[in-house]
Design goal:
The structure holds 2 protein chains of 2 kinds. By secondary structure, chain A is α/β, with parallel strands linked by helices. Chain A has 2 domains: about 5-150, Rossmann fold, CATH 3.40.50.11890; about 160-305, Rossmann fold, CATH 3.40.50. Helices cover about 45% and strands about 15% of the residues of chain A. Chain A is built from 13 helices and 10 strands. In chain A, strands 2-1-3-5 form a 4-stranded parallel beta sheet, with helices on one face. A 4-stranded parallel beta sheet of chain A has the order 8-7-9-10, sandwiched between helices. Chain A is globular and about 60 Å long. Chain B is an alpha/beta fold. Chain B has 3 domains: about 5-125; about 135-200, no CATH class; about 205-363, Rossmann fold (3-Layer(aba) Sandwich), CATH 3.40.50. Helices cover about 55% and strands about 10% of the residues of chain B. Chain B has a 4-stranded parallel beta sheet with strand order 5-4-6-7, sandwiched between helices. In chain B, strands 1-2-3 form a 3-stranded parallel beta sheet, with helices on both faces. In chain B, helix 6 (about 125-155) runs antiparallel to helix 7. The longest helix of chain B has 28 residues, at about 125-155. The radius of gyration of chain B is 21 Å and the shape is globular. In chain B, about 50% of the residues are buried. Classes of the chains: A alpha/beta, B alpha/beta.
Chain lengths: ~300, ~375
């Protein structure tokens, strides 16, 4: 085939839409190249490229772009404005393609179609496909069909692995997928917990759970991911089998600074053990390890 | 019921008198001081932005001073501002204060604001609501106009401090204008007051464009009064964000002023293609506009962890590189010190001065 390579940085929304994007682009006849998993080197590159105090996940994203940009013909960085009618993505994701363009010179062409359900609910996908088609000079109809077909695929369904078990200590993990599932940024919390004999639980809240959680708090959270974090926190606090909850967030995350406050004060009515781990580029593995260990220890004492 | 609304620049001057005359027991918060900020910081989430903290401090101080109702504008993102009221109410209730909290759900919508006015005041019919609301908007515009005069005259004044006194006098005049007719007349008097200032007509000051997040840019307490500091360094300020422009974009009360957000979007094409909330579009668009208009440099002001402005800041640094155009980004939070700001401003002004000398000698 043409063998034109399209790069997808393994950061931010990759952890939500990876499978959908990959099959979508492959089906259009291109080769997909994803950047390797985050390493210290990638993060360092990202920090070098970024100006000012952008948050950790965005810096990482820039690092991934750096590692990809010389080996691909196109970069796939869609602009996700809103995926639901009542919520936005974070402002930094709204401006992501522009930020990438601002931070690099001699980039390959960026495919940056806009996905905005708020603007025009019925034609979002048509519009999205039209923009992809324009950049790649393809037939819009074919692109649309392929996108609709693949849009159901989520990020690798690892959820089953993280469901409840009969183990003694179940720890609910909440946080944005791009922190939680990035093994480097999220300090591999899943494995750390398993090694300590606790069982990490992660859920992708369903529509109903989100609606229910939003009735408990005074005003619905208008960031898609913040909403999910809040909803899974709510589900965990209600669930008797969950013994403790860890919230992992990036230190200067805007939405999380507010939803974190809501979760701590509004949702934790039963006073379950709850800990916020905020990570930034200086967070050390040992520091996180120690805190998680102490947390699990404490839960163990409470239960016995 | 004593109603209070957190400070934002000179907004309280625009509405206090008018609402009082219409039966609202208004009580603007005490002027923000270091104590206000400390109170706000102590009770806020760690990474909340500076406006949130100052607002919270305002609220606490007003409640202490006897207010028992708070009005806080809201909204639905993507900036954090829309969620301020919720978190603040929660914090204040936890501190044990008793009060009534009202938020406007959608500050972009006129009818919503009129309903809010009807709700809190003795005005009961819609036309009167409109009349009062537009008078407040006009008063805000008059205040902004006086401030624009101030920016122009301050670097050129011969007797130090004369412009500051003129601004005070103008604010007082505008404050006393409680009808449309009076306001119309006072506008002329304000113009005259400024025209009477003795200025050095041959002096050509440096011009710096001030852009950034709206609250920190227009609230002298939050930005340690950078505008006055620059004025005293004899620099003319060309401000790109005005509260009355922001209001005008939504409620169209200045017939000859273009929609600034749309105007900025035209300028920003190619650098920022979709607004990422807040004033990001204005910041990027107007940086390019000011560059074209020959303004000497840009001072970009934002609160620490501000999401929209971080995007804008990244982009305008690229513009700075592309166009060889000086841009200084200043991040404000509770730890920023006066000496730090002054030193950086002085260095920036020096740099601009040198560039100008070079440019002039080249021609």
């Amino acid at each position: 085939m043409k063998n034109i390579r399209v790069g997808i940085p393994r950061a931010l929304l990759y952890y939500r839409y990876a499978d959908a994007w990959k099959t979508f682009i492959e089906e259009l006849g291109y080769e997909v190249i994803t950047s390797p998993e985050t390493t210290a080197g990638i993060l360092k590159d990202g920090i070098k490229k970024s100006v000012g105090d952008l948050c950790l996940p965005v810096k990482t994203f820039l690092g991934h772009v750096e590692s990809l940009k010389d080996s691909v013909d196109f970069l796939f960085i869609p602009r996700y404005i809103s995926v639901e009618h009542d919520a936005y993505m974070c402002p930094k994701i709204l401006g992501l393609p522009d930020v990438v363009r601002a931070c690099f010179t001699n980039l390959p062409r960026i495919i940056d179609p806009m996905f905005n359900i708020k603007k025009d609910k019925d034609n979002t996908i048509t519009e999205f496909s039209r923009q992809v088609a324009r950049i790649l000079s393809l037939e819009p109809e074919a692109v649309e069909k392929s996108f609709i077909k693949n849009s159901g695929a989520g990020y690798m369904n690892e959820q089953e692995e993280y469901s409840l078990t009969d183990k003694k200590i179940n720890v609910g993990l909440i946080g944005r997928p791009y922190l939680l599932f990035d093994r480097y940024l999220g300090k591999n919390l899943f494995r750390t917990l398993s090694e300590l004999g606790a069982n990490p639980v992660y859920i992708q809240p369903s529509e109903n759970e989100i609606t229910e959680a939003m009735t408990v708090i005074p005003k619905w959270v208008y960031w898609s991911m913040g909403k999910e974090v809040t909803a899974s926190a709510h589900a965990f606090f209600k669930d008797d089998k969950i013994d403790g909850i860890i919230n992992i967030c990036s230190a200067t995350c805007g939405p999380d600074s507010f939803t974190g406050d809501l979760i701590r004060k509004r949702l934790n009515t039963r006073n379950k053990p709850y800990m916020t781990l905020s990570v930034d580029e200086h967070a050390s593995d040992t520091g996180i390890q120690t805190r998680v260990e102490a947390f699990v220890d404490m839960i163990g004492k409470v239960i016995v | 019921m004593k109603l209070t609304v957190p400070h934002m620049g000179m907004l309280h001057i625009a509405y206090t008198r008018i609402l009082r005359e219409n039966g609202v027991d208004m009580m603007p918060p005490p002027k923000a001081t270091v104590k206000t900020l400390n109170l706000g910081v102590r009770h806020s989430p760690e990474f909340a932005c500076l406006p949130f903290k100052i607002n919270l401090g305002n609220m606490i101080e007003s409640l202490e001073a006897g207010a028992d109702a708070i009005l806080m504008p809201g909204g639905y993102g993507p900036c954090r501002f829309g969620y301020y009221g919720i978190i603040q109410e929660q914090i204040l209730r936890e501190l044990g204060y008793k009060f009534r909290m009202s938020t406007t759900d959608n500050p972009d919508k006129l009818s919503d604001l009129i309903d809010t006015i009807k709700d809190i005041s003795s005005i009961k019919n819609r036309p009167d609501g409109y009349r009062v609301f537009y008078l407040i908007l006009m008063r805000m515009a008059a205040l902004d106009r006086a401030l624009a005069f101030y920016h122009y005259y301050k670097p050129r004044e011969i007797n130090r401090g004369e412009t500051d006194r003129a601004l005070e006098e103008s604010v007082r005049l505008i404050d006393s204008a409680n009808t449309y007719v009076k306001l119309f007349m006072e506008n002329f008097r304000v113009k005259r007051i400024f025209r009477d200032i003795r200025i050095d007509k041959r002096f050509k000051p440096l011009r710096i464009g001030v852009l950034g997040e709206i609250f920190v840019t227009i609230e002298p307490f939050a930005n340690l009064d950078v505008e006055k500091k620059l004025g005293e360094m004899r620099v003319e300020i060309v401000r790109g964000v005005w509260l009355s422009d922001w209001l005008n974009d939504r409620f169209r009360f200045k017939p000859f002023r273009r929609n600034q957000a749309k105007l900025s979007a035209l300028w920003a094409k190619g650098y920022l293609d979709y607004p990422s909330g807040g004033e990001s579009m204005e910041t990027v668009g107007k940086t390019l506009m000011f560059h074209r208009k020959g303004i000497d440099g840009i001072l970009h002001i934002m609160p620490f962890t501000c999401m929209p402005e971080l995007v804008a800041s990244t982009i305008i640094h690229r513009i700075s590189k592309d166009k060889n155009y000086p841009v200084l980004s200043m991040t404000f939070d509770e730890h920023v010190s006066e000496a730090n700001i002054v030193t950086r401003l002085e260095a920036f002004v020096d740099l601009l001065e040198r560039r100008r000398v070079e440019r002039l000698s080249r021609n």
